[in-house]
Amino acid sequence: MSSMISLAKSFIKSNSMSKPTDKGQKIKIMVLSIFSMVFIMLPVLAGVGIMVKTMTEALTPVGFSEFGLQLMLYITCVFTVVFGINVLFSELYFVNDIEHILPLPLRAFQIVGAKFLSVCYMENIMQFMMILCCIIGYGIGMNGNMGILQWIIGVVGIMFMPIMPLAMCGIISIILMGFTRLVKSKDIIHKLTILLSFAVLVVVAMSITSLQAIDLGEIIEKMARNSEEGFGVLNTIFPTVALYVNAISKGSIVEILLYIIVNVLAVVVMLAIGEMLYFRGVIGLTTVGTKKKTENIKKIIESSKQKGVGYAYFLKELKILLRTPAYMTNCIGVNFIWPIFVYAVYKLKGFNYTIEELRLMYKNNEDNMQLIILLGVVGISILITALNSISSNSISREGKHFAFMKYIPVSYKIQWNVKAIIGGMFAAMGVLIYVIPACIIVKVPLLHTLGYVVLSLLFILGISYMGIYIDSIQPKLIWEDELGSLRENYNTFFSMAIAIGMTVVVCVGGYFLFKGMNNIALEILVLLGLIIIFNVIILLLTKKSYIKNIENQEEA
After folding, report:
1. Alpha-carbon gap, residue 403 to 385, rounded angstroms
2. Which pLDDT does position 453 carry in this prediction?
3. Count of other CB atoms within 10 angstroms of residue 307
4. What is the pLDDT confidence band of residue 199, given thresholds at 50, 70 and 90?
5. How far apart, in Å, are the Cα atoms of 451 and each of 107, 367, 549?
6. Is a pLDDT exceeding 50 seen at residue 168?
7. What is the DSSP string of 5-36?
8. Which end of the chain has less Cβ packing within 10 Å, N or C?
9. How far is it, in rounded angstroms, from Cα 397 to Cα 327?
10. Which 8-state DSSP code applies to residue 337?
11. How far is CA 349 from CA 48, 208, 293, 342, 345, in A?
12. Integer Cα distance of 276 and 122 in angstroms
């Protein structure tokens, strides 16, 4: 047991970001952490707690007070499985430390257990806080009818909630690799994840098309009344959720003990299966999914074409993103799926405008339609650029090849600009391929469309340079696989926090400032001036610091 825990600690340490040593870097990281707390963590956690509180208060009179809490816990478990299966597959079989660990005098269950513990710790810190907010929301929604014992049971049970879903992911991974070897490389896993994600999005899109204006309160009440039937499958897959909710609602020590025992048994089963099958699945496994091709050096040289330094570096960055499934899924795919969520909001709000009605509303600026579209384009441009994490992960992606940046005959300025341009390019594609056709369909005047496009590109440019600047302060260079450069990388989190704060200030502030102005040209000019000032500040900041940040950064 001690060997397993020690090994888990080493995994956690090796996957965590290193702490800054420079005083200036520490101050910057602290400021960014505060931004992240204010603009991401607190709003999300508060929103989850308020949602559970609202459902609890609404359903308590009809006898379904636990429904909101139970629903959120099931959603949490489902997301844990969806994202955990990929992570556990990679950790158990395809990280580079496997070849160093296998020769050690460790049993299979110790390796599996250590990796499982490290994943539980690294992947679920935010989840623990969300579950705590769910319990707080439930407790407040009960209007003081929740006793001290129930609070204690709720808090104690938080740390066990992710265990069952992740243990299921571990069991599936070990059995699949132990018996079939269908998955022979991490690239295959990521490709399967892309296909699965695409299939889910198609189903979501098809479902959304049938949505109309609905009474969410009525829908929730109907779901609650049929919760036993509706939760039947989920209760079978995740039996710990029902035990946990019953333990909290009844203050039952017996049920919380059963909840803990079931979670422990799930881990024991996973370790037992790992002891039997893990070595069988991992020994001899290669992390390379394709056979190496040997070519005549003379032919390679003859087929090579000389290109400009900047263009060659641009192609290098582009190929890394496009050829790496982890980056393709998490960094590129996210740029193109946002209209699904916008459309979902449109349908849920009950809007049912025809194209001709939208044209008239824009032309006459009914309900400040011009201002809403302007701020919508700006807000989406900011959020998508930060969300794709291409720029805020650009230096971290170098990993153990970070020294390559220092010693190749390419100036830091060119490398920096190319990385920012790559991040902005995909964001711009993801925004403009939807915005421009929408403007054409709604017959937005050409000057307005050009204004939207220019504003979008300038905001994307500013956020891209801001992201790479944040990543240069303390990049995460130590990771075992490409997915590891994204996981536990706080720079992406920091960039997203600033982007959300910026979106709130620009969109909410802009709406109340410009409301009733009825002059879209003036509004575009004001925003244009603001973003130019922001971009100048960011460019001056990066010009002053980018060489220092790269030179002072230690190699992985």
Report:
1. 27
2. 95
3. 11
4. low
5. 64, 20, 35
6. yes
7. HHHHHHHHHHHSPPPP-SHHHHHHHHHHHHHH
8. N
9. 10
10. S
11. 20, 12, 55, 11, 6
12. 26
**Secondary structure (3-state) at 506:** helix
The Cα–Cα gap between 19 and 13 comes to 11
Answering whether pTM is above 0.90, one says: no
Measured CA angle at 47 (ends 161, 140), to 5 deg: 75
Closest among 26, 161, 178 to 92, alpha carbons compared: 178
Q: Which region, left, alpha or beta, applies to residue 315 given φ > 0 means left and ψ of -120 to 50 means alpha?
A: alpha
Q: Hey, what are 53's tokens?
A: 């509180």
> How far is the C-alpha of 54 from the C-alpha of 331, rounded, in Å?
35
Instruction: Write the DSSP symbol of residue 555.
Output: P
What local confidence, expressed as pLDDT, does residue 211 receive?
Answer: 47
Residue type, 362: Y
* Per-residue model confidence as pLDDT tens digits over 169-197: 899 888 888 776 555 555 666 566 666 65
In this prediction, residues 461-472 reach a mean pLDDT of: 92
Arithmetic mean of pLDDT over the chain: 81
Two tokens at 414?
A: 């060119």
Sequential DSSP letters for 387-422: HT-SSTTTTGGGGGGTHHHHHSSS-HHHHHHHHHHH
Confidence at residue 452, expressed as pLDDT on a 0 to 100 scale? 94
Find tokens 């992740």 and name the residue. 166
Residue 400's nearest CA partner among 471, 472, 475, 478 is 478
